[in-house]
């Protein structure tokens, strides 16, 4: 509503946010407020820089090794799904990464026990993907990095701002905004300041954290409208009572959906180990897989869309990010029960 009312004329300035100079005082106030609200939400310590960048989390798969590693540095990757795998593959161009654990052989349905991880003490960092959207696997706790610099890095694209996070446990957190905090086009990087300034010589200027920190994310024209929208979302999350309250809502939504799956006597199945099931992405299959197309079609008639699983895994997937209200999940659960009664 606020974005709609301010679309043509931001707070009496006579300009839309889309028309402003990114160096003008109006936009400066927008980006500064967005950063301070995000710092409040996540209790981000002073020794971390917050960057609003472009290129999606995928660009960070390259930017991270380029900024933190020399070409021969070893790095440890824990691969719990497709996104962790993509991050590892991109890092191969810029450092010497190893996959120290992969869930691929078990179809990415688990997270390893942290004690058993064989970390390389000489690794520059340990990398995880905190929530895997395609496979519905989420870290509920985080491994302690055993490398010499005690550096843990996380891709939090799909569960960013869905629950509190102790930022001080991480050297760097990165996230594409488009799941929980804004439209696509904004990538948020939270990086400890002592890690900045040692980029490889081949690092493109747009990938160099030092450039962006020195220019307060305004080195070139940033995704101004996207940053403005993120700022409105941060205001809203604070107004809801902060991330502890947001997490409570997300737990409740996920719980009723997983309960519906688990109590369906096998009609619906979720392959993910219960202790690491995602609060954001709930994948499930139907016992009679030939009914899946019918399920998607009937759900669409009830105005429930985008329930088809990712093409790489099939089945169904309900993505229940922050913006999905409880009523939306309740409606899906009622439909699932009705569909089962008619087709079981």
From TrEMBL:
A Gene Ontology BP annotation from the UniProt entry: L-serine biosynthetic process
Essential cofactor(s): pyridoxal 5'-phosphate
Pfam families according to UniProt: Aminotran_5 (PF00266)
Keywords assigned: Amino-acid biosynthesis, Aminotransferase, Pyridoxal phosphate, Serine biosynthesis, Transferase
Catalytic reactions on record: 4-(phosphooxy)-L-threonine + 2-oxoglutarate = (R)-3-hydroxy-2-oxo-4-phosphooxybutanoate + L-glutamate; O-phospho-L-serine + 2-oxoglutarate = 3-phosphooxypyruvate + L-glutamate
Family as reported in the entry's similarity comment: Belongs to the class-V pyridoxal-phosphate-dependent aminotransferase family. SerC subfamily.
Chain's role: Involved in the plastidial phosphorylated pathway of serine biosynthesis (PPSB). Catalyzes the reversible conversion of 3-phosphohydroxypyruvate to phosphoserine.
Protein name in UniProt: Phosphoserine aminotransferase
Species the sequence originates in: Vitis vinifera
């Amino acid at each position: 509503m606020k974005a709609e009312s301010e679309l043509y004329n931001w707070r009496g300035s006579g300009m839309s946010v889309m028309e402003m100079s990114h160096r003008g005082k109006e936009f400066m106030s927008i980006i500064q407020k967005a950063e301070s609200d995000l710092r409040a939400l996540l209790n981000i310590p002073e020794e971390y820089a917050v960057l609003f960048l472009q290129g999606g989390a995928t660009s960070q798969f390259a930017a991270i090794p380029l900024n933190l590693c020399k070409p021969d540095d070893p790095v440890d990757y824990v691969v719990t799904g497709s996104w962790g795998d993509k991050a590892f593959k991109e890092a191969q161009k810029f450092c010497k990464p190893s996959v120290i654990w992969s869930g691929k052989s078990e179809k990415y349905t688990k997270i390893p026990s942290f004690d058993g991880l064989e970390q390389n003490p000489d690794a520059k960092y340990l990398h995880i993907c905190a929530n895997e959207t395609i496979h519905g696997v989420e870290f509920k706790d985080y491994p302690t990095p055993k490398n010499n610099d005690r550096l843990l890095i996380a891709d939090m694209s799909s569960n960013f701002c869905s629950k509190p996070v102790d930022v001080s446990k991480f050297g760097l957190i990165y996230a594409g905004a488009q799941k929980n905090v804004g439209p696509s086009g904004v990538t948020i990087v939270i990086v400890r300041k002592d890690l900045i300034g040692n980029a490889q010589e081949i690092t493109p200027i747009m990938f160099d954290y030092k450039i962006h920190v020195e220019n307060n994310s305004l080195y070139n024209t940033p995704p101004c409208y996207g940053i403005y929208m993120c700022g409105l979302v941060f205001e809203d999350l604070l107004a809801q009572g902060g991330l502890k309250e947001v997490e409570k809502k997300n737990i409740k939504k996920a719980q009723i959906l997983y309960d519906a799956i688990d109590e369906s006597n096998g009609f619906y199945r979720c392959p993910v180990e219960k202790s690491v099931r995602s609060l954001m992405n709930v994948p499930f299959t139907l016992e009679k897989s030939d009914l899946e197309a019918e399920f998607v079609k009937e759900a669409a008639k009830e105005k429930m869309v985008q329930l088809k699983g990712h093409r790489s895994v099939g089945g169904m997937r309900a993505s229940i990010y922050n913006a999905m209200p409880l009523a939306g999940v309740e409606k899906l659960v009622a439909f699932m029960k009705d569909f089962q009664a008619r087709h079981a």
